[in-house]
Amino acid sequence: MSSVVISGDTSGAITLSAPAVSGTNTATLPAATGTVMVSGNMPTFRAVSNITQSLTVNVTTKATCYTTVQWDTASCYNSSTNRYTPNVAGYYEVKAGIQYGALSAQPYIYIYKNGSVYTRYNLIAASGYGNPFITGLVYMNGSTDYLEVYLESDAGSGSAGTSGDNAYCYFSAAMIRGA
Which DSSP letter does residue 37 get? Predict the structure, then answer.
């Protein structure tokens, strides 16, 4: 294996090493200034529901059911506050899903950024159970921006979140591009 070492003018070094396999490997750097991202520093997380949360009709309520963390590559998800605050500035794909139970109308799911609605979706459900999901792209500054999920039902009464149903009840985000 061969290596190229680039030393900084103060401290530290960058080492580029070729793998011990035959063939040609190419890494192309962008023609732009900024941070070069590698898979090890692009934050991602997924949390799922392990509880059922009660809801009140026509009240937008923060989702507190995403308490089981399946992974969190940069320790940016706080399961006690159900809040994601990534530590790297960039563009993130965020997704959330929930299972509503015993509702008789339209269940809503929202993504909030910094305490305000960023995007929302509602599922037109005649009765019974609703399983809305939402996805979106959002810019995060890497220090103070945060994401949360909120829920609402416009009629009926019921609950959201189902213990162990990770196919419906999830909150996740992944960095897709640096700032």
Answer: P
Task: Determine contact, residues 84/76, Cβ cutoff 8 Å.
Answer: yes
Tokens of 134: 């939402």
For Cα atoms 166, 175, 44, give the angle at the middle one, nearest 5 degrees: 40
Is residue 21 assigned to a domain? no
Residues 32, 179 contacting (CB under 8 angstroms):
no
Q: End-to-end CA distance of the chain: give it in Å, rounded.
A: 34
* Tally of structural domains, the chain: 1
User: Is 125 a domain residue?
Assistant: yes
The answer to whether residue 32 is domain-embedded is no
Structural tokens at position 27: 């890494």
Instruction: Report how far residue 118's alpha carbon sits from residue 18's, in angstroms, rounded to the nearest whole number.
Output: 44
What pLDDT is recorded for position 47?
96
Nearest by Cα to 174 from 149, 143, 133, 138: 138
- The model's pLDDT over 85-101, given as tens digits with 9 standing for 90+, comes to 999 999 999 999 888 76
Q: What is the H or E stretch that residue 83 is in?
A: strand 83-84
Decide: helix, strand or coil at residue 41.
Answer: helix
Range of the structural domain that residue 105 is part of = 43-178
Instruction: CATH number of the domain at 76, please.
Output: 2.60.120.40
* Cα–Cα dist 58/90, whole Å: 34
Going by their DSSP bridges, the two strands 107-113 and 170-178 should be labelled as: unpaired
